[in-house]
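hey so i finally got around to running the thing on that chain from the lab meeting. sorry it took forever, my laptop kept dying and i had to restart like 3 times. anyway pasting the input first so we r on the same page abt which one it is
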Amino acid sequence: MSSLCVFAFTVILILLPAARVSGKVPAIIVFGDSSVDAGNNNYIPTIARSNFEPYGRDFEGGKPTGRFCNGRIATDYISQAFGLKSTVPAYLDPSYNISDFATGVTFASAATGYDNATSDVLSVLPLWKQLEYYKEYQRKLSSYQGTSKAKDTISNSLHIISIGTNDFVENYYAFPSRSSQYPIGLYEDFLAGIARDFVKKLYGLGARKISLGGLPPMGCMPLERTTNFAGAGECVGRYNEVAVEFNGKLEKLVGRLNKELDDVKVVFSNPYDNFMRIIKNPTSYGFEVVASACCATGMFEMGYACQRGNPFTCSNADRYVFWDSFHPTQKTHKILADLAVKSVFSQFLP
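ok and heres what got predicted. didnt touch it at all, straight out
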């Protein structure tokens, strides 16, 4: 199975509890990949799904929702911390309607990327399609809340973008097309250009609070370590070097956007250094296992390879940083969400 992205949320070194806060953020609006997909892929023809056990085994009711996790994901916890609902629903889920989406919605699609070629690999929603759904959402919101209130909701909502890892591990390094077109540095520039245009389009649609996520140490995902035979199962250094380089370009992009666009606050959520601290010192965060995942053997399984009843699947996911070979456990998501609210997102609090 092709790899899916882990996640990209800024964390700080110390662990602080999430606080429930009331304020000026009426909704959490999310774009991205499997790090923030709450089940949109359940409703499109793709194999990139996780709507089956053991996914969701620690979710309320033990329900597999389509989140690539044993329970809730970071955006769910962020929503709750802002005094909103405890889960952010998937836009394509027919069990929800605009009254649910008015306080939070995710358009994310597992296995996608900035590059349209990345979304083509497993036939998932490209970023431009997520934007089209967002426009449709705005029309529904205007009908539901009235034009004036809907505009206020959009301008004050926190827009979170978590995407990019798939462009490298599922596209650039997996197939020859992009790597034959672009040296890695130019491909990074290509993706950063798409990120810039996407933020500007959100701005043009009324968004004023935007978080642009960077890449985690993608060379340290369990699958990458498992297949790093020459490196004796250690993190893949070249993947991590690319993550650091690309993050630097996104950070500079955020600075330029804040200067170019009026009345906007764009923040950069860079998870790299802090997530690497978790990997190097897992016990400091309450983890015991970081090199392998909870599901199945923990070495290479995700999606349909993460099957219910596999005798190797761990009994306590809270001991593990990763749930499957690409995605974090609910506990990891909660830690990152708590820290992000206390650091980067604190400036959006009243």
